[in-house]
Amino acid sequence: MNLSRAAIDYIAISGNSETNLWTSIVERVRSIDLPASDDGKMYRIVEGSDQLVRSMVNDCQIMQSNRCSILYSTPINQVELLPSNQTRLRTNNGMSQIFDAVVVATSPTVSQFFDFEPRRDFIEKYLALRQIHYTCSSKILLFFNTSWWFTQENIQGGSSITDLPVRSIYYPKTTINQTDGGTLLASYTSSQDSIIWQSLSESDAIELALQQLIKIHRNSSNMRNYFQGGKVKHWCQDPYVRGAYAFLAPFQETELVEKLEAPISNIHFIGEYTSFVHGWVEGALSSAIRAAEAITTEPGTVVPTNGIQTISINFYEFLSIAVMLIR
Fold this sequence. Notes:
Blueprint: H1 5-14, H2 25-36, H3 50-61, E1 68-72, E2 76-81, E3 87-91, E4 96-99, E5 102-104, H4 108-111, E6 115-117, H5 123-131, E7 134-135, E8 137-144, H6 148-151, E9 159-161, E10 168-170, E11 182-190, H7 192-198, H8 202-216, E12 227-234, E13 245-246, H9 252-255, H10 257-261, E14 267-269, H11 281-295, E15 303-304, E16 307-316, E17 319-326
Parallel strand pairs: 2-6, 5-14, 15-17
Antiparallel strand pairs: 1-16, 2-3, 3-4, 7-13, 8-11, 8-12, 9-10, 16-17
């Protein structure tokens, strides 16, 4: 297809992909196709996505006979594969424990900070973790005491795309009283669009996002009267994630994906970046199912996810699972 430069620019801006034109065409098609599947239905967890984790913790705590325990403030710094085909985990506070299997559930950027030993066994894994394109993302939330987008412009759900630095805006759709206050995702950016916001202070970013929102919604220029504050989140500045999600570069689909998801002996790797559903919770869950199916044939498991807490679970007499969250 021989498109003009103007046509390419129009498609890139309207499709919110202007800074990702260089990425894998397979990734681009997948990012369009997946949200459009299942009749375009999107799902959310009522009262917040953290309810999923809270539910898992609650299930852990009610298990009988201490079959599940949670340790906090236990960051991992070394994962050592032993000659016995077991794995020793060492923490920053000096704790050392041996397990039959390990699941590494961090992001690829965080995983690089683990000292995997013996290193010669992890050469290909380190290479894949270093080379995978793991993009940045930023969100700017603005709080209002009146849902002006509904009361003044009759907007209920959906999004807007612009060539202004805010790039994309997402409007809430709820069943509560729409005239009450609400939170607007005033800017959701990724890649280079995210980087330019990271140079601003939180207060400056919030003010600039509000100014651009007023410019876009000129019929609601009085929104500043309802403004209550805001919050900024830069995923690349999050020490527990150090990035947002995988968005593959050309050839990484064939050269890196198998290396990323492949276990090293009894050490398994999960996360959305090891799946084919990048940037979605679905990808993280599907990779977890893959690892769970694999470890049910092994006598025991440990799961480092990022280091701040450790969950140890015994599902059966022969199976133990530990989760290290936030390095």
